[in-house]
């Protein structure tokens, strides 16, 4: 079977790995010019960890694991408000890694014949019933048995197959940002702890990534539907510019827009995940938001479920896609609901 997968993030790489292993001919197209940078720390746990284990990737992930032994809450003036010590190893069913490291591991284990084409994406497709003609952004056309949209929460494939994003996106009322910068002195000062500071309507955090780098995380309340800013760095300065602790230093080290992750905190709710010979996997169909701490894990689980159902379907694609959705959707809906339940507590309320 020939499969075009759009998006070489966690879901797309995992789908490509499973399908390549099953002997399918996979073309992975990715909009970015190359592999992504570090991104942010992900806890890979539960079904996601189990999927990683079945892929045999734990040793590779353990080598790159981010290990933090404390969570320290600061007041705005920098004083320590609360400290939580990790009571011991997180257990053998969880590993924390930087998103870029997880993607690197997935890239490195792809089947030899799998083609990854950067600076490429899906422009359009025509479903002929017995196959799908996929027009790529360079104008070339790939004929495939299946098109998989693994292109994240703002999925282009979903928009082409199902319609505009605003019909499916549930905005939880926060914007969030993350970036990494080199700074040995600050990394040393952070010890091996995740540090958080909160104030009405916002929170900022920092943690060391190895001995030389610092990762940041910012989240703040916004009215649902607030458009994303054109310049994330300027927006972070506007929102966090007057806060204390080490936030001014973190803002000074903010890189250019290409290296800053900035997005709304949102979920995707779709009545169905597949249409004809097109299906979705990962955040494109099941985004649960960072509040769940399970999006990447469930993207891995989804990739495995899709491949397993295609294997089981023995060529009956419609049946396989039905089975994939039936298998995973109940878990996704439950995780999404749990995440929404955490929204009120996530960031302190705005001052009245
Ligand atoms: C700050 C933060 C912390 C998080 N913490 C956790 C956690 O602890 N545990 C956890 O499990 N999850 C966590 N998540 C969620 C997790 O990151 C996502 O659920 C996961 O990345 C989804 O993977 P994906 O491959 O579906 O989508 P993405 O990671 O968004 O990847 C999509 C890929 O498609 C590419 N793409 C996009 N559009 C196109 C296009 N038009 N054409 C071609 N390519 C395209 C993108 O460049 C990207 O490579 C967190 C998220 C955030 C923001």
From TrEMBL:
Report the domain of life of the source organism. Bacteria
Domain FAD-binding, first and last residues per copy: 2-159
**Pfam families linked:** FAD_binding_3
Q: What is this protein called?
A: FAD-dependent oxidoreductase
């Amino acid at each position: 079977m020939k499969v075009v997968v759009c998006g070489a993030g966690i879901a797309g790489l995992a789908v490509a790995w499973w399908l390549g292993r099953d002997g399918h001919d996979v073309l992975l197209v990715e909009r970015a010019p190359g592999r992504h940078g570090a991104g942010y720390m992900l806890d890979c746990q539960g079904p996601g960890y189990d999927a990683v284990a079945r892929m045999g990737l734990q040793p590779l992930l353990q080598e790159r694991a981010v290990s933090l032994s404390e969570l320290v809450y600061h007041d705005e003036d920098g004083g320590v408000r609360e400290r939580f010590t990790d009571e011991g190893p997180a257990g053998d069913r969880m590993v924390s890694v930087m998103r870029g490291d997880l993607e690197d591991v997935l890239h490195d284990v792809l089947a030899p014949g799998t083609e990854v084409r950067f600076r490429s994406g899906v422009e359009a497709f025509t479903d002929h019933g017995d196959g799908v003609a996929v027009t790529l952004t360079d104008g070339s056309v790939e004929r495939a048995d299946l098109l998989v949209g693994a292109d994240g929460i703002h999925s282009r494939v979903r928009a082409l197959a199902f319609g505009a994003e605003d019909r499916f996106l549930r905005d939880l009322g926060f914007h969030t940002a993350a970036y990494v910068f080199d700074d040995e002195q600050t990394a040393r000062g952070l010890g091996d702890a995740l540090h958080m500071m909160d104030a009405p309507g916002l929170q900022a955090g920092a943690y060391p990534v190895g001995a030389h780098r610092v990762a940041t995380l910012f989240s703040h309340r916004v009215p649902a539907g607030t458009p994303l800013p054109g310049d994330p760095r300027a927006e972070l300065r506007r929102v966090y510019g007057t806060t204390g602790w080490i936030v001014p230093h973190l803002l000074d080290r903010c890189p250019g827009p290409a290296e800053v992750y900035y997005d709304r905190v949102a979920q995707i709710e779709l009545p169905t995940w597949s249409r004809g010979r097109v299906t979705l996997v990962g955040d494109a169909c099941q985004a649960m938001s960072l509040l769940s701490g399970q999006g990447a894990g469930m993207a891995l689980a989804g990739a495995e479920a899709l491949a397993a159902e295609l294997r089981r379907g023995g060529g009956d694609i419609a049946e396989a896609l039905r089975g994939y959705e039936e298998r995973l959707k109940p878990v996704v809906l439950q995780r999404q609901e749990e995440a929404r339940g955490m929204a009120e507590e996530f960031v302190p309320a705005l001052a009245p």
